[in-house]
Specification:
mainly alpha, rod-shaped, 62% helix
């Protein structure tokens, strides 16, 4: 059995570790809201469509 002095030291150590561990936990950041519906087309799709349109017009003009 532990002596009374050792019990107090042991309990103090355990409570200290538990309290430090509880303060050391990181709270995850909140989840950001979803983007609103109806956003414009982005990410190069517009340029891809414009390039295809220009290529098609050139191809049609050259084939005549």
């Amino acid at each position: 059995m532990l002596k009374l002095k050792n019990k107090k030291l042991y309990i103090t150590f355990v409570l200290g570790v538990i309290s430090v561990q509880m303060f050391a936990q990181v709270v995850p950041p909140p989840i950001p809201p979803p983007p609103p519906p109806g956003l414009p087309i982005d990410g190069g799709v517009v340029y891809l469509l414009l390039g295809g349109l220009i290529f098609a017009v050139k191809k049609i003009k050259n084939s005549k």
